[in-house]
Write a structure and sequence with these properties.
This protein is mostly helical and 131 residues long. 85% of the residues lie in helices and 0% in strands. The chain contains three helices and no strands.
């Protein structure tokens, strides 16, 4: 995620600095056209056309980056939804296992009590016979 934020900043910063330049793009060096090469330095219609192509290229790159970010976000969202479902199922399985073991333990305890009670009865019967 941090790498994604870094790549966004890296691509967005040139766009924002381009918006701060004064003058019309492609109108020559020092007039908003910048040091873009000999055609742009000369100004005129070719310089403006070159600036327009450049702006179009950067808008296309920005749109591709945003599409990639959206796609990755959707993939991450799907992955996390699957993980949530997996963990819900695991919790359900473990809860059922706990309930099953609790029931078995109570049944075992009851059978031990019955067994102890029957042994006590046998001992009492043997004592009464001896008297």
């Amino acid at each position: 995620m941090a790498a994604l934020r870094y790549s966004c900043k890296k691509l967005v910063l040139p766009f924002s600095s381009r918006l701060l330049s004064s003058g019309e793009l492609g109108s020559g060096a020092g007039k908003g056209g910048g040091q873009g090469g000999s055609i742009r330095d000369a100004g005129g219609s070719f310089g403006k056309m070159e600036a327009a192509h450049e702006e179009q290229y950067f808008r296309k790159m920005e749109a591709e980056l945003l599409a990639k970010i959206k796609r990755e976000h959707q993939e991450q969202s799907l992955y996390h939804d699957e993980e949530i479902e997996f963990h819900k199922n695991a919790i359900k399985r473990h809860t059922e296992a706990i309930e099953r073991h609790t029931l078995l333990k109570t049944q075992h305890d009851a059978s031990v009590r019955d067994h102890e009670g029957s042994e006590k009865n046998l001992i009492n019967m043997e004592r009464t016979k001896k008297k």
